[in-house]
Sequence to fold (665 residues):
Amino acid sequence: MRVLLGRGVRAGILLLTVSFLTFLAIARTPGRFGDELRLNPQISPATIAALRAEFALDEPLLPRYGHWLAAAARGHLGYSLTYRIPVERLLWGRAANTLLLTGTSLAIAWTIAIAAGLAGAAARHGGWDRAVGITAAAVLALPDLLIAIALLTLAAHSGMLPAGGMSSPGVTAGWAAARDLIAHMAIPVAVLTISTTPALLQHVRSALAEAMPVPLATALHARGLPRARLITRHALKLAAAPLAALGGLSIGSLLSAGLLVEVLVGWPGLGSLLLESVMARDQFVVVAATLLATAALLAGNAIGDLLLHAADPRVRLADAEPRSAFS
Amino acid sequence: MSGTGRTAILAAIVLLHVVVLAAPWVAPSDPAVQHRAAPLAPPTRVHVVDGDGRWRAPFVCAIVQVPGGNGSAEDCTATAPVRLFVLRSEPSGFTTRTARHLFGAPPLDIFVLGTDEFGRDVFSRLLAGARVSLTMAIAAAGLALLIAVVTGAIAGYAGGAADLLISAVSELVLGLPWLYLLVAVRAALPLSLPPPQAMAVIVVLLGALGWARPGRLVSATVAGVRDRDYVAAARSAGASMPRILARHILPEVAGVVAVASVVLVRQFVVAETTLSLFGLGVPEPVPSWGSMLAAAQRPGALTQTWWLLAPVAGLIGVCVVYYALARVLRPDLLHQRT
Fold:
């Protein structure tokens, strides 16, 4: 619990710092909101002044930040100047879309990584193990950008899958809508899965290799335990701890890859929202989207720690005892 | 890895950089010149058999715009032989400048990888873009490593409060999804900048965000070396801290820095391409792989004008070669994705 508390405090400090830094950065931005409204003859200067006053845009930086912080503490993250709705309402919808994308690919990537890792461990140094290792290394060499472009080109050529957006116009209800959504998800999920799996797979392989020290494996094997059972029962259990910690960490890289993929395929998620709002100078949305991404990453790390805690009794023990001065 | 493997990778690295350095000479035309008569031309074919079925030395046909259409095709009423080491005059300011190129077919043009919608030669832009991207990536990696070595040396050697502060900052940088951070920080700057400023901004941004990981490696290495006997001997002999760092400790860091530089250059080339693709990077008319790829986002480009995807080939080349190099040097540092 002490550990959790410390982590919470650190996360809070990190979020505060990030919010202040983004705020500072946005405040220094040339080009202010309302500049283009001034070109519209139907909007009087008084209206623009009122708008700017409403968002306290003309106050100095620190009062403005304090203003925002007080509102954020009550759950109000500001007002999107382009969408004309509160930022939090905009944000949740987009974040849910991102979660749908990243959650699905994370699940698929872990399934593949564990299955292939187990199969590789079952036949260590066999043909399958080597083939998997080489493929993983080859895919690791390619950046997400290339994987995305390759799959999009494939989709465009085959014409079987929609290559952009999240839904087709006119399809709104029932099974058709679900099928449509899955078809639209196929490309981005495939890109994210391909980009995350190799690193996971390499970790699974090394965790399994470490968890199956040769004497233990030989002894159990000599007692007549089938190899498959040895791997699934004993090695996997030992390997669970490092993998659990990795589970949380993989969220961070997935978020960055997610931004790229969202922008490329036009998926209305958090990443494309951030880019849009950067272009539109929609400052509160920039701050909030960056914060939410940071929070998601921190939550991922925390979940990883909790899983590690649950999976490894040694960690639990270390936390329960007072830490010695030499550790 | 075997000796031949290493040699092959080194040869590939050298070849890549020689071609990129020699870009203006290797490229058949100026990357900025717009061949208005030949927009969206497919890659020029080199023929060896003429219209009458006779064998001839390699030659190319003229490229003309398809009447009424949105593209160009070859027109073999005019041909020119392909030659090596050709002289070619190009517009340069108000005058023209004559330069020698590796190959060409004067008076006609060779578009090895076709042209974009303004009729600019994609192959020449690919090479010029490689120059821009690699220069920026190498400069940014240099900056990042400079910060990494300075902060890492201080954190690792001095320890205490300095270590705490530096690790807190690097944790902040590492704790964020880097692409979000890059876009958010880029947001603070004017959207359109003149090319030199935009390039400087990107170099500084990449450097400022990329130092954290190598910084940690440096600090860990320095902390490991700090208590060795020879360092203690130097200290007791009265050597100053800068001298101990420079003479006894930093040489140990050289390996880490070498690997980190290879990893960073690869990562930064991709990052720069991504930013330019989003329209936040190097602006037109400076050729950059990202803005070239942005042109390929036109509807139908993926199926009809596939040659606009040429930067993909360049990226694959740079990524694979640099990845192989890093793998040869230290395979255990490669778990971060770009």
In short: Chain B touches chain A through 43 residues (CB under 8 Å). Chain B has twelve helices and five strands. Residues 34 and 313 of chain B are 23 Å apart (CA to CA).
